[in-house]
Amino acid sequence: MNEHRSIPDPEALIADMGARARDAARVLAQTPTETKATAVRNAAAALRASEDEIVKANRADMARGEANGLTAAMLDRLKLDGERIEGIAQSLESVAALPDPVGAVIDESTRPNGLKLSRVRIPLGVIGIIYESRPNVTADAGALCLMAGNAAILRGGSEALESNRAIHACLVEGLQQAGLPEDAVQLVSSTDRAAVGAMLRANGLIDIVVPRGGKGLVARVQEEARVPVLAHLDGLCHTYVHAAADPEMARDIAVNAKMRRTGICGAMETLLVDREFPEPAMLVDALIEAGCEVRGDDAVQQLDKRVKAASAEDWDTEYLEPIASVAIVDGMDAALTHIARHGSGHTDAIVTEDADAAAAFLNGTDSAIVMHNASTQFADGGEFGLGAEIGISTGRLHARGPVALEGLTTYKWIARGDGTIRS
Question: Are residues 162 and 193 in the same domain?
């Protein structure tokens, strides 16, 4: 595999990997659906068979992470056990069962001159994925790229190096058993940060880069990239409890949105409570009793002595920890204004029994995912029936929200004539 090659420097490493990925991409673009699916299913089987080796590798990463002072949220993202490995394997099997977008006809028409036009989905080519902490991304991204006919170059964070290597070995095993080139999914084993820069400059070898991580990583990618970027930004998610919300529903949704898993991008970071909502203190109490630190504005602090004062920075902070900022707002317009000013365009939700209010929020919130009477923790490709996701795009071009198979394709125009010439 590529990690055993002797490459003198990061630029040469990425150039070598990119050239081999492009060769593999040409093969994948013509590979039948069942062959791709077989490779992914084989990889899932290899994951299950390699559980002990993967857990052992992950323990080494966890020990190093603890020694280096990784936060609890980062360690939670990093951790693998039998249950999570089984979840990854099931996710791969879900991806393998999805309809293949490659070759799908988007639309077609016949021009007055007899020319028959159609738009057909094709792979993007070679996709570079740069990510932090989560070793499951190695499996998900590799499988999604493969099923959409793309080659992938994966560069995970140094904190998950051993885990990523162990998972990548399973992907390679799946490819080999299916008779596909192992260069279809490559892992950058170098921890040199210069390798990231080399990927961002690999115009002509890498067709698009997908960053998954914190603001620092995404900002660097967007600033330095010489190839297109599909950005997965931070998840500064809001839940707005409207005046007409059912109190018990609002309580359950708020606690779940924040506390189910605090380290994921779909976790609620800010709770907005309408001033006319009858039981705001109940919401605050429920969060605190669930183990969440609440930071609030003056009105929220008056509800419960345990609430800490929120600073200006809190409204713009993705905590990824059991901390939530809570504000009392004067109606729908104030809630929408707060979200527009402080949100990241990821996922925002309203809790209300008023259908008109729900419609106003869903139409007025410019985020990739908007929800009504549901926890923001559902912001996940698997939960959306996509098998897995390569990231949640918060931009406005190409793909938005959970990016799965269809988001990893583009299209070409096909024109069919019958000796048709232009006058």
Answer: yes
